[in-house]
Write a structure and sequence with these properties.
By secondary structure, the protein is of the alpha/beta class. The protein has 15 helices and 13 strands. It has two domains: 99 residues, 2-Layer Sandwich (Beta-Lactamase), CATH 3.30.450.90; 220 residues, Rossmann fold, CATH 3.40.50. The protein has a seven-stranded mixed sheet, with helices on both faces. The chain has a six-stranded antiparallel sheet with strand order 3-2-1-6-5-4. α7 runs parallel beside α8, α10 packs antiparallel against α11 and α13 runs antiparallel to α14. It is globular.
């Protein structure tokens, strides 16, 4: 445990987000989204086995023995909590420790816009925070729960795997339940929550069809439900939910979704120019017109409707990235790398006179057969590689506490 705590303290000092501990390889950190070496040398399988078995509780140890992987939480007092996944690969045991800051970052510190904090005042409906693994979904949700906790007198139930941010009761009563320790599964805990008199239910991950369906039903019955999904855009979130169901139920689910969904916040974590990371937020709010598009299955029209709905607080990912570039928060290259619709973003850069010097010349594949018209080939872009300067000490969420 001494070796592990030393590594985790070094992780915090470097402003990293994750410690990767692997058998027969040196421990590594993720700092500002990139893998960097720790100060420690290669650890043998026996050494890693001793470290990881030493921090597992009985439940996690039994699950690892049976399944060869497990999740749990680990805490160093006065430093931080960590979400842990222990697994086995061809070299032996390994583990990933994700840092969870000791204090909940407030909506103000994260710089959440009013269009997001306004969602905390809803009395019912489904609000989804989406993004890839490690994009800060839990941090955003924790800030929203904290915002409610300071301003309203509600009963909040959180269902997590594992519990990450620990909330202290302020104006709200908050019950935090951990999968495997306090309940069997997300779906079972969510169904039970309906008998626990909640005002708000937070589902750490809507990972299966049953959980998604119960979340929709809970939102329809007069509760406010916050949840997460691993999708990158608002439109793809709709497709992910609807496609999770059999074809003969998709019309029903579209109708339920159009009635209960209130907003989607799709976030992408970007490297800041001056160190740290910041989230670019794509925000969809479901008004009457958006509800009709979802009900009628016209998901492909959602991005255009979001562009029109800018005055209502809706933001497309490209617009969020552009705003961060124009304020100097992130580099244009970083925005391009994180964009889903790269061609559209490049066109916007040209209109805004933002340099795209980070790109090499676009190339198109030449046809092999000159006797027939070749099929259209997509234009590919290559990033010019520049030498990376030495990095100064970083903080996980940036200098001002943003993602």
């Amino acid at each position: 445990m001494v070796i592990l705590n030393r590594l985790l303290r070094e992780l915090i000092e470097k402003g990293g987000s994750d410690l990767h501990l692997s058998s027969e390889r040196p421990p590594m950190f993720r700092v500002d989204g990139e893998m960097v070496n720790s100060s420690m040398s290669t650890q043998s399988h026996a050494e890693v086995h001793e470290i990881l078995r030493g921090v597992m509780d009985t439940r996690a140890s039994d699950e690892f023995t049976e399944c060869r992987d497990t999740d749990f939480a680990y805490e160093i007092k006065d430093l931080a909590r960590f979400r842990v996944n222990v697994f086995e690969d061809r070299y032996g045991m390994g583990g990933v420790f994700r840092q969870i800051p000791g204090e909940v970052l407030t909506a103000e510190k994260l710089g959440l816009p009013a269009s997001v904090t306004d969602l905390c005042n809803l009395s019912k409906g489904l609000v989804l925070v989406t993004g890839p693994t490690g994009s800060g979904k839990s941090t955003t949700l924790a800030a929203m729960i904290d915002y409610i906790n300071k301003r309203q007198s509600k009963h909040i139930i959180t269902i997590e795997d594992p519990i990450e941010f620990v909330h202290q009761d302020k104006k709200c009563l908050i019950n935090q339940r951990q999968i495997k320790d306090h309940t069997r599964s997300f779906s079972k805990a969510l169904r039970a929550a309906l008998r626990q008199d909640p005002d708000i239910v937070m589902v750490g991950e809507m990972r299966d069809l049953e959980t998604i369906e119960i979340a929709l039903e809970t939102a329809e019955t007069g509760h406010l439900v916050f949840g997460t999904l691993h999708t990158t855009t608002a439109a793809s979130t709709m497709d992910r939910i609807i496609d999770a169901f059999p074809a003969n139920r998709q019309n029903q689910i579209r109708s339920m979704l159009s009635n209960s969904l209130k907003a989607v916040i799709a976030q992408t974590l970007c490297k800041k120019t001056n160190g740290g990371r910041v989230a670019a937020l794509e925000i969809l709010k479901v008004d009457f017109g958006m509800s009709a598009l979802i009900r009628d299955g016209k998901i492909h029209q959602i991005p255009s409707a979001m562009q029109v709905g800018a005055a209502k607080g809706m933001v497309l990912l490209n617009n969020a990235l552009l705003s961060l570039v124009k304020t100097g928060t992130i580099e244009a290259e970083e925005a391009f790398l994180k964009a889903v619709d790269k061609e559209s973003l490049l066109n916007t850069f040209k209109k805004e006179n933002i340099s795209t010097a980070f790109l090499s010349d676009a190339t198109e594949a030449e046809p092999q057969n000159t006797t027939a018209a070749p099929p259209a080939q997509p234009v590919t872009y290559a990033i010019k590689k520049e030498p990376t300067p030495d990095k100064k000490k970083r903080t996980l969420f940036g200098k001002n506490g943003s993602h």
